[in-house]
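Consider the following assembly input.
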Amino acid sequence: MLEVRDAPPLSVPLRFFLGAPLFGIAGALLVLIYPDTALASRWHPHAVAVLHCFTAGLMLQAMLGALFQVLPVAAGSLVPRPRLLAGVVHPASVLGAVLLVAGFLLPGYHLTGIGAALLALACGVFVVAIAPGLLHATARDPARRLMRVAVAGLAVAVALGFALAHQLEHGAGARFVTLVNLHALWALAGWALPLVAGVAVLVVPMFYITPPYPKMLLSLAAIALPVLLAAISTAAWIGAEGLARWLALGVSVFALGFAGITYRLFLLRRRTRTDAAGSGWRAAMVALAGGAALLAVAMLASDPDTAQRAAMALGVVLAIGVFSGVIGAMLQKILPFLITLRLAALGLGARLTGGPGERALRAQTWLQSAAVLLLLIAICLPRMVVFAGAVLLLAQCSFAWNVWRFALAYRHTRATRQPNEPQA
Amino acid sequence: MASVIEHFAADHRACDEVFARAEQAIAQRMQLQAADAFARFHLLLDAHFRAEEEVIFPAFEAATGMTAGPSAVMRGEHGEMLGLCEDVRRLIIAGDFDEAGRLADTLFSIMQAHNMKEEQILYPMCDQVLSAQPQVVADAIARLGMPEVS
C-alpha cells in the first residue's frame, strides 16, 4: 500500500535539479563558440550538440528529478529505493549526456556511442524500475495516463537515439534520416509533451486555483497520442512519407489544444497575484502554440529552404522555449515547495530565509523569453547569433543562479536554525 | 453514505477560494480587507482540521491501529500550517505586506501538498475503513464550513 512517507528524500530530486541548468549554460556557450554553425542547419553537428545540451541534458535531468518526486505522491506510483536508483541513474545520465554532446563536437573518439549507451542504461534502469508502480498506480486521472505515455515515449526515444548513435559510429544506413525524424518525434511529442501535460494537469489547477483540465478530453488524448505516434512511425518506416507528414499534423492539434486550454485556465485562475512562474508557464504555452504552427510549416512547406528554417526554429521553440521554459518556471515553484516541506519535516519551521527574490525570478523568465525570440531572429539573420547566444547564456546563468540560491538558502537555514521539536 | 473524500476535498476547494481572496487583498495592501479575509480563511481551515483531528482520525486510528501512520503525519502538518497562519496574521497587522505575501505563498504550497496526500491516500483509506461507521463520517462532515461567530 502506498504511504504518505513514500515521497523520496529531498536529495534525490535535488541532485537532478541542481545539475540541469549547467547543461543550459553549456548549450549557450556552444552557440557563442560556434556562431557560424550552431544555428545554420539541423544536420550540423554543432547544432545537434546545442540541441542535445537542452534535451539530453537540461530536460532529461529536470524531468527525471521531477518523476522521482511526482510519481509517488501525485500519481500514486511507487518508485522503489529512490536513493539507490538515483545513485545509478543520475551519474549515468549526466556522464552520458556530456559524452554524447562531446561526441558530436569531437567525432572519431566513439564518444557518441559511449554517451548514448550510458543514457540508454540510465533511462532503461529508470523505466524498468518505475514501470511496475506506474502500471499499478492507484491514481485514476489523465495525469497518470499521460505520465505512462511519457515514460513509454522516453524508452522509445532513447532506443531510437541509441540506434542512431550506433549508425553514426559505424556508418549511416539508408534510413538514417527517417530514424532522426522519429527520434525527434518520440523525444519531443512522445516523452516531453505528455510529461509536461501530465504535470500541468496536476500543478496548474493546484498552484493557481484554476478550474480542472477537461478530464475526458485529456484521457482521450492520452490514448490517441501514442496511437498517432505509432501510426506516424509506421507510415514513415514503410516509406509513406506523405501520410506521415499529414498524420504529424495531429501532433500539432494536440499541442495547440493543450496550449490553448492551459492558457485559458491561467486566465480563469482564482489566484490573481502575478508571479514569475505563472508568467513562465504562459510564455511557454505561447511558444507551444507557435511550435504547433512551425511543425505544420516544416511538414507541409514545398520550398526546402523554408522547411529547413522551420525545422530549426521548431527545435529552438520546443527545446528552449517550451520545455526548458516550463522547467524553469516549474522549478521556481517546486524547489521552495520541496524545501519548505523538508524544513517543516525536520522541525525547523517552514520559512526559508535567503532564497531568490521575485525580481530575480522575473529576470529569469524575461531573459528566457527574450533569448528564444532572438534565437528565432538569428535563424533568419545570422549576424544576430552572437547577441542571441549571449542573451541565452544570461538566461541560463539566471536560471542556474536561482536554482542554486534556493539550495544554498536551504543549506543556510538548516545550519543556522534550531529545531523547535524533536526530529521524527 | 456520504464519503470523506467527496466532502473533505470539496472543503479543501472552499478553503482555497477564501485564501485567494485574502491573498488578493494582501497583494493590494488593503490591510482591513486582508485581515478580515485571512481571519475567515483561518477559521475555515481550523474547522477543517478539527473535524479531521477530533472525529475522522481517531476513528481511523481505532479501526486500523495505525496511530503513528498517515494520520500522525497529517496532524504534524496541521500544526505547521496553523503556525504559518499565525505568522501571516501578525505580518498583516504589522503592515508588512511583502513578507505576508511571501509567507502566504509558502503556506498555500504546503497546504496543496497536504491536500494532495489526503485526497490521494488518506481519504480513500478512511472511506474504506469507516464504511461501517456512517454516523462518524456524517458527524465530521457536519463540522466543516465557516463556524458560527457569536
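The two ends of chain A are 21 Å apart (CA to CA). Ask yourself how this observation constrains the way the partners meet.
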